[in-house]
Amino acid sequence: MDDWQNKVHSMSLRAKFAVDHKILTDCDFTFGNREKDSQVISCHKLILAMTSPVFHAMFFGGMRYDGDASIEITDIEPQVFRQMVQYIYLGQSGISSYKNACDLYHAGKKYILLHLERQCIEYLSEHLEKENAIQIYEFAQFHGEDELERNAVKVIQNQASYVLKDESFLHASESTLATLLDSDRLNISSECELLAAIERWALAQDIRENTTESSARKIAAPLIKKLRLLTISKHEFVNGVATSSLLSDSEKLSLLLRIIGADYPPMMNGLCEKRSKRKPCREIMNTILEFDEVTDALCDGSEWFTSVFTTNTPVVLLGIEINLQKRGEEGVYKENLMVKVGLAFKEDHFAEESLLRTVPYNSTAQVMLPYPPLLQPGVQYAVHVFLCSPGVYPLGNHTTLTCKHTNLELEFVSHASWEQCHPWNTTVLSSLIFTDVVETDDAKVNADE
């Protein structure tokens, strides 16, 4: 094709044009059916090697591949590999669904495309919903994505009644269900919900494995022992347990006798002896600070910002979110900051945590407190943020002082910087992260003392 170089105006688009039209390509990837052109993806070794350490080793390093042979890909679907190539050439991932994000993450991890991995995790975090929470939890656990895993667990706990009835529950692994049943906090009306869900799950395994119905009890045996059946009422026993195929008649009788009279011997067959009901789990809430204007401020690595606020009802302060350093282009840097929480105008503090890790510019970061304090209404509290990494931070001028969430109000009294080196009522805070006092037993500090 004559003069193709002038048909597009940027280097990345020229490279994409060249790969789309197979101009100067010098390596082919096949996916099982070599006769179909749609199953052959042609690329440029140099461009692949410039993006991926694996491709560099494959074409120019110790893993050098025979240049005359096509490279067969057996663990990535052609459309996903093509999507990865599009990212390499244009920097655009084009993620279309949570499943697509999981598949693309696998491709990015295989070829050590760290930025692509991060885009996939960001997509999954933004599209985490009750319908896909179990799949995303299992994906995050398998790949060691701890923050995504924790967020998925919270969705499962908060939406437990829905998740237990959803089709996705039937495809969960046994270890996932064991984790769910080990939780002290689930939004369910009764333990009978869990029993019915486990029974549906076990029967679904029978159907998939083409075994007999009697094996459902054997499949579910480790999970049954985690059910707190002693917490149900006589009415729930009659309507929810008596007809279950997962318990034997002798186990049902043993359970009923202990529901009626607590002085009977321990439960048979290792069934759970707990009589404490699972506690409800409330959704974590954010109070977002609204700014009239944002200014860029150069911080020298010894900045100290303080925000004073009150609440109208008891809450548990889980953490904060802050605005990270700004930069004209994408990239990462090593953030170093400390957060302390205490009574306003007091030197002492009752909660603290540090953030010391590599983070992207032009973004936000959450700092979660390891021992979330219980805050009481009518008391003024202070959040201190110490910035120890020199750089440019966006400071918001916070003039809307009251943030509401349902019947809860958090009112910011003031924002200030150490020695007043920045304008009054400016802060690096983006939001406070809190929940109802029922959310966590870790709220051991009564912060009005």
Automatic annotation (TrEMBL):
InterPro entries documented for this protein: BACK, BTB/POZ_dom, SKP1/BTB/POZ_sf
Superkingdom of this protein's organism: Eukaryota
Pfam name, any one: BTB
BTB domain segment(s): 27-97
Parts forming coiled coils: none
PROSITE patterns xref list: BTB
Protein's UniProt name: BTB And C-terminal Kelch
Gene source species: Nesidiocoris tenuis
